[in-house]
């Protein structure tokens, strides 16, 4: 046989066209599809259970073939009418829907346990929200106290300086109500004759007082000695004018 008479194995005679598929399938998918086309194919247990469940859920239970419906009809129930104690026709006309439990954990729980878990989770959320609200209120209260403290310290510093200014006009050389001296100035501080509360013990006791008490003491001192109102920011001519013109001794009185 000549070379020209030899068969061409690359010709279309020996080539088989590969069928085109719309999508790539794995070996398991191809094997499953092949088994399904076989008349002897037995479906897996989980597939049968799923089909049986879907078939059962799709079947209505209010048909005359249902044992429950037959019992109700024997008791006088008419199909299509509401079911319940309400006499005005507002009872149930449709069976209660079936709620499937999802997840391995919930499927192993008894009746009502899923609702209990949801209720417990909701309680935890409510508890966390309540705790967050409490923490927010505590934070707001703490910030408010800090602002009030800074405000009071600023007012105390101003009124002590004003006390020193008014005392100096009367040639008073020292008063424990004045701003505190620096450590370097302590050495040069004497106890002059024309001084108020000049003893070291009185000064130490005064500084130990809360800022609000120190402020109130200086405020009263300025009103009594100089008819000066810190909130009005002015000095009146006499006590009668102070009582008549000044709205009051408190800051809120001047709003």
From TrEMBL:
This is 7094_t:CDS:1. Residues 64-116 form the G-patch domain. Pfam families: DUF4187 (PF13821), G-patch (PF01585). GO terms for cellular component: kinetochore. Residues 1-47, 183-207 are annotated as: Disordered. It comes from the Eukaryota. PROSITE patterns: G_PATCH (PS50174). One of its GO terms (molecular function) is nucleic acid binding. It comes from Acaulospora morrowiae.
